[in-house]
Amino acid sequence: MRALAALASALLTAAAARPAVAQAPTLTPPVTAPGIGVMPRPGSTLVALTLVIPAGSADDPDTIPGSARLLGEAVAHAARGRLDPSSARLDVRVERGWTAYMLLTAPDLWVHSWGVLEDAVFRGSLADTAIEAARAALIEGFAFDAGAPVREFQRELYYVLGGAMDPWSRDPRGTRAALRKAEPAALKEFRERHYNLAQATAAVVGPVTEQEVHEALAPVGAGPLARPASAGPVWKRGDRLPLERDVTNAWIGAAFPAHGDLPRTQLEFVAHQLQESLSPALPDPGVFSVFVHIEDTPTGPVVVVEVAVMPEVSKTWEKRILAAVDGLKDETEEPFFRWQRRRFQSAALLREGQPKEAALRVALDLSRDGRVRSLLEEVEAIGPRDLAAATAGLEAPRVLVMGPGLGAGSTDSGR
Amino acid sequence: MIRLSTHSSELTTLRLSIPVQEGLAEASAAQILMLLGLERARAAAAAIGARVEGIRTPWGIAYTVTGPTADFDHLAYVLREAVAEPRFDRIEFERARSRVRGEAQRERETASGRLAAELRAAAAPEALPSVGTPASLNMISMVTLRYLWGRTHRREEMSLVLVGPEPVELVLASLRNIGAGEETPIAVSTARPPAEPDEGAEVLRNWYGTAWVAGDARDPHGEVVASLIARRLREEEPAFETSVQLWYVGSVRVLAVTGAAYGEAAPVMRRRVDRVLDEAAESVGRDEVAPTLAALRFDFLSGASTPWGLAGLVGRYHDATRDPYAAYQYVAALDEITPETIGRYIQELARSGPVRAEVAP
């Protein structure tokens, strides 16, 4: 038996033995910022840094849907051009309520890489070449899905969640026509208005210390953070919304609004349980996909169950989704619950085993709630009655069904 | 056992590898054994939502399980299930064999698979084929699997990589009775598979390749040269298809450059493939080498950025060399590479001489 307790740090040492790249001397005194989260992992081989801007497609100007995404991709393109591709990789995600820049970088170069990203995001001139490259790539993405039924289903589902008139409900991708005509000046104006260092949040995961992160990132997250208002549930009356279409699949979107004060970890547990109970170990030949997720609408969180099924079984699956939610309200048996909680804990930890995922979760926690959850403790604190109560607290669902031969509603979703 | 205790993510990863040497008539049996073990491990892991992987490596079988550190006992149980004696279940067995047969036939029925097999056989003639033929696969039975299992799944032959905070004593105690007992037979099967006619593959283009024995896994020169050649071929965009690959064949590492071209372009393609190593030697410069080294280093560190990725990399280098420090030595050796060392490495490859293979329409 040979113990190699130091191998991971040895790998780091090997990486750090390269010719040193000068890091800018820091003149800023140590500070702490409410919008910065640090998850030190001394043995990790990379640093993951995520920057969340609390603005997304919901903030697009009405005349240019897709602006936030085009800007995000253009900024990422510009930053990638300046980052050393052999020591840093950058991804960007633009959602309805936020934009995240996710950087993975070598430990000895993370401060330098952050400097490049920060400049590209907040200050650097947005070159036309970067905008045009991003524009071309995004427009190309529309090539194969014009008229795809699943796109229509998605559009209608988000109208149900956020209301047809709310800008939040629009497709974050925008439209091909709007992307074509978006002027660089409009993107720069968007950046001026929404990209603010102090209101952004950031998280760093890797072989770093709290102090060096705060020093390097200041004044990011200095606050006040622009946290989304969390009102009551999005709606209290359920509904069934059939969309008759002559297509070969059927799609069901069942949306259950939650109260804004329900702890996030409990809500994620409910979503995890629904995903498990609707995904049988032996695959159901009538179901193509099941996806349960939480959407933070402008007025509160909603648990959304999306399934794609064969039309013949769509009515059965509507009932199955509602029965799965009802079933969770009665799940208070302690031994059974303990296994469920262990699986939920595993899923959370395995996701966070990937530094990029951990950094995104921490930055979004800060952006949404102003604090970073201690996942392990919060999961362990959940008891069987908490899960049942969290499920019982969900309001009546709105169920959107799209497909052929839907006929009259078979679901009593008003409850 | 290799213990890495510094990942600090509340997770524990265990990667257990079992060296397997198949006899001629057993080719692909280890793959079936692995699929059956993986099925059992997945069933055991589902109770706690642990992550399980099983792969047939060039050196044997490796199972990796990751889950919360608090569930260590269950993670050890998952591993014990993975390497337990195969239970007779005809449906599971036939399903696994059918999957392996599909993979084996994919290699036999395509020109690229044929070329790769011929190059591997020429570069490492002493290595037994790891993929069976339809006839040999038909001969594999549960008895074959139990014999192979008893011969290979022996605790003293296994190696374990642990990424987690558990004390060594606890880990060893948890895996105390793992695998086969001592009463099982140990001789490698000498049975031969039945001869069968070569059914041939449908070949439309001329396929040609050269390969060199590329040295020890701890020496990254092979990866560097492969990257440099790949970059050069990418930039040229020739009128024919080319690829560069590094294989492990038995205990040997092989660097292969292959090409495919229609009739009139075939001579140009052959010359290009033949010349590519010499051209790499003539033109390698510091400007090319530095970014290639940095990219390889970053790829390595990216692969090791999760607990299961770290265990996989360290375990793989250990399996290839039996040296627990091999992964570290590989990363450290990247810092020693210069255009001059690459030039010397290429000269050595050229001196040992390439092997060649061709599959023509």
Description:
Chain A contains 14 helices and ten strands. Chain A has 415 residues and is α+β, with helices and mostly antiparallel strands. Chain A folds into two domains: 31-217, 2-Layer Sandwich (Cytochrome Bc1 Complex, Chain A, domain 1), CATH 3.30.830; 239-403, Cytochrome Bc1 Complex, Chain A, domain 1 (2-Layer Sandwich), CATH 3.30.830. In chain A, the strands form two sheets. A five-stranded mixed β-sheet of chain A has the order 1-5-2-4-3, with helices on both faces. In chain A, a hairpin with a 2-residue loop joins strand 8 (287-297) and strand 9. In chain A, helix 2 (67-82) packs across helix 7 (184-194), helix 9 crosses helix 10 (314-329) and helix 9 (264-277) packs across helix 14 (384-392). Mean pLDDT of chain A is 88; it is low at 1-6, 12-28 and 409-415. With 361 residues, chain B is of the alpha+beta class. Chain B folds into two domains: 2-174, Metalloenzyme, LuxS/M16 peptidase-like (Cytochrome Bc1 Complex, Chain A, domain 1, 2-Layer Sandwich); 206-359, Cytochrome Bc1 Complex, Chain A, domain 1, CATH 3.30.830. In chain B, 49% of the residues lie in helices and 18% in strands. In chain B, the strands form two sheets. Chain B has a five-stranded mixed β-sheet with strand order 1-5-2-4-3, sandwiched between helices. Chain B has a four-stranded antiparallel β-sheet with strand order 7-8-6-9, with helices on both faces. In chain B, helix 1 crosses helix 6 (142-152), helix 8 packs across helix 10 and helix 8 packs across helix 13. Chain B is globular and about 60 Å long. Chain B starts with a strand and ends with a strand. The mean pLDDT of chain B is 89. At the A-B interface, helix 1 and helix 11 of A face strand 1, strand 4, helix 10, helix 11 and helix 12 of B.
